[in-house]
Amino acid sequence: MVRAHLLRAALAGAALLAASVPQATAQTEAPDDGGPPAGRPSLEGLRRAIRFDLGQQRALAREALDELVGALDRYESEPGATTRAARRDELLALGPATRTLLAPYLDPFWPEAPKGTMKLKWRRERPGVVARAEIVADALREAPSVATTELLLALVLESSFEGRMNALRALEASPDSARVLEVLRPFTSAKPASAFEAIPEYRSDSDGSSGSQGPNRAFLRAAAVRTIASLATPDSDRFLLTLLRGRPGDPGMLRDAAAEALKGGDLARTAPLLLDLARSETGWGAAESIAEFYDANDALLGDLEHSEAILSLSLDPRVADVHRAALFDLLRETDTKIAGSIKRKIEQRYGDDDASAFVRVAAKKLLARRGSRSAKRDLLAPYDDRIRNRSNVTGALAQRAELLHELGEWNAALRDWRQVIESERMSSWKEAMLLGYARTLSRAKKYRDARDVLQRTSLSLAQLRGLATDRDFREMAASRYSDAFHLESDG
pLDDT value at position 416? Predict the structure, then answer.
């Protein structure tokens, strides 16, 4: 069994360390009379003592490790973030000698190895073993080494689905990036490595019932992409760009995993990569990923290079309309001036009825944000008419407020939102109106008012925390009013 093999390899670490102590030789250590000086042990004796001491330390470490792991396995409910961090630190405090011993515990079913439907029962009845495996992954990720890298790669090649996923997580900080890339790259090919043939094709529902959520193979391939992205080397970056451009036979999950990894990466490294991709001949094929990256990092668009690259890409006729509209929508707050020739191209190509409706609207919004009065007038006209004719005034005011918000007309949008809130105190869609009002207040830097409005909503803590990374609330979340988003850690 692979688990036995891994444990034997781990335990061999102590023996290798002890074996590194030089052997005694008769020529270098034997005195003239053939015996050691009085009161001094021979090197062979020292070597035996060191080996015995290492063995004792290893046994004590193993005993402490077993005790900690056993306590984790006995958890009857999912531990919170604070508890997980504390248990991880306790594992790390055992010292480097236990790192290789930890690796097998990345598999929640180690060492009992239940079969088939018994695993489903374990997930339902023993949440501690699942949490234990994840906490071990966090610990190994915090203390990477070349020695543990090989053990983790062995688990990726042969373990349970959960063990492989945890091993991939632990490998994200490996110091041997070249070796990790060498082993994981084949997993993301159009025809994955034969190691995947042993993986059950579908995983069970999270509640332990029969059925499937999707192929295990796809989840593992996406996890491998995330691990490769974390290596942050020129080779791994080039690989991610290949995935973004798309390859025949690749599932969308791989592209999504690469895009997600780049979105959250170090901008000093990832921004130049995405800029080069946007400018390249093949950039149109990655328009969706490029739009997602810049939406998450929209501050980059204040730079002339980035905003011009996005604008040029949006005019490429090979870009799908839905992605073109998203690219137009990105250019909201940049000070970049649109050259007259490009402005005319947008008006001619996307300002008439031949263009898709949503592309036409997105193009007009872009032109209006850049100061086109005619585009702004065309966009506002339908709502102005409805308000003037008293036709569903509240709905028209809310829609106009949203449009003015997108155009950056904060004060005008706030005037409309106030009318909506005052007239619809008992409206069934008041929640959405309050959130829209809070968005505009945040954009107008009226953070205290925005916090007060958010407190009037019934949003959950998870939803409020999610708003902290929303484009409209990012600056507020970085201000002294960040308490509105309840970002403190849970227990």
Answer: 93
